[in-house]
Give the backbone structure.
Amino acid sequence: MKRAILRAASSALGRGWLTRRTSAARAAALLGERRASIQDLARDAGVAYGTAFALYHDRASRYDRDTLDKLCRYFNCTVCDILAYTPGPPADGAGSE
């Protein structure tokens, strides 16, 4: 099983990792709960179809702040409901004994 990992760019996440698989699976589940399509998401949330498609199919390589805001408003949720934080390996041997 291929595990796609993004290096976290936000200082709030420090040296952690965001797993795209987790975030995409949640976006798909949120759409399923609404019985909405990718096209519905794009139209109603005001995001590009390509962006909605990439998020749904786990192909998004980055998450724009404005897009996250639109998704949170559309789903009436927080960013934590869309993206999941998973700690990665310690950097530079930190935490090893």
In short: Residues 33-84 form a domain with the 434 Repressor (Amino-terminal Domain) fold (CATH 1.10.260). The first helix runs from residue 20 to 34. Helices lie at 20-34, 38-45, 49-56, 65-75, 79-82. Confidence is low (pLDDT under 50) at residues 1-20.
